[in-house]
Amino acid sequence: MVAKSKEIADDAPAILTGGFNSTPETGQIQPIQTLFRDAHTVTKTPPHGPQGTFNSFKFDAPMDKRIDYIFLSKPFNMLKYGILTDAKDQRYPSDHQPVMTKPVLN
């Protein structure tokens, strides 16, 4: 991902998003953080919502594993970050919670 991102974006501002199915400390996520900043950790305001993004399609699941990300290249500042928990009839539309951000370019 890092090599392909460099190839595509070169020095242009870039945002990388996805459900990586890996927690922040894993070998899959660590290399990405050499090129991009994790929106969760660089937001100017405290993150909104639970820590985790995976719910197993269970309304009462402990959402403590963050496996979905928004990564930003250095020209961005992150104003807000949140994990949304909207549900209908105690059912989620996905087994992953939506992640939202409000970035701005410097």
Polypeptide structure, described:
With 106 residues, this protein is an alpha+beta fold. The protein is globular. The protein has 2 helices and 5 strands; from the N terminus they run H-E-E-H-E-E-E. It has a 3-stranded antiparallel beta sheet with strand order 1-3-2. It has a two-stranded antiparallel sheet with strand order 4-5. The model has no long low-confidence stretch (mean pLDDT 95).
How many helical elements?
2
Which segments are poorly predicted (pLDDT under 50) over 5 or more consecutive residues? Answer: none
Main β-sheet, spatial strand arrangement = 1-3-2
Overall mean pLDDT: 95
Specify the biggest β-sheet: 3 strands, antiparallel
Q: In terms of structural class, how would the helical and strand content be classed?
A: alpha+beta
Mass-distribution shape:
globular
- What separation lies between the terminal Cα atoms? 24 Å
Helix content: 10-25%
Quaternary state reads single chain
Query: How many extended strands?
Result: 5
Radius of gyration: 14 Å
Topology:
Elements: H1 2-9, E1 15-19, E2 37-38, H2 39-42, E3 68-72, E4 76-83, E5 99-105
Antiparallel strand pairs: 1-3, 2-3, 4-5
Features:
106 residues
Summed up, what is this model?
The protein has 106 residues and is an alpha+beta fold. It has 2 helices and 5 strands; from the N terminus they run αββαβββ. The protein has a 3-stranded antiparallel sheet with strand order 1-3-2.
